Automatic annotation (TrEMBL):
Belongs to the BolA/IbaG family. It holds the Pfam family BolA. InterPro entries: BolA, BolA-like_sf, BolA/IbaG_stress_morph_reg. It comes from Natrinema salaciae. This is Transcriptional regulator, BolA protein family.
């Protein structure tokens, strides 16, 4: 599955999400993807539940089209702080 398609699926199924999906670093297999997802939905949720929300947004694609997905999740405030530190 192409990264842009995964981005579209996440963004259309997770409220106010902004997703960036690429092929995972240091991987030679194009089936391994990395997603950075920013959404206010993550506010107050533990990391495991944040990642579960992304997997839920992808639905059956996680078992049929995506071999591996590395997920990083942030609230908009957390992401803004991260970008300011760069």
């Amino acid at each position: 599955m192409q990264p842009a398609t995964v981005e579209e699926i996440i963004e259309s199924n997770l409220e106010d999400a902004d997703a960036t999906v690429t092929h995972a670093r240091d991987e030679h297999d194009e089936d391994h993807l990395a997603a950075t997802v920013v959404s206010p939905v993550f506010e107050g949720l533990p990391l495991v539940q944040q990642h579960q929300a992304v997997y839920d947004a992808l639905g059956d694609h996680m078992t049929t089209d995506i071999h591996a997905l590395e997920v990083s999740t942030y609230t908009p405030e957390e992401y803004e702080d991260l970008e300011a530190d760069r």
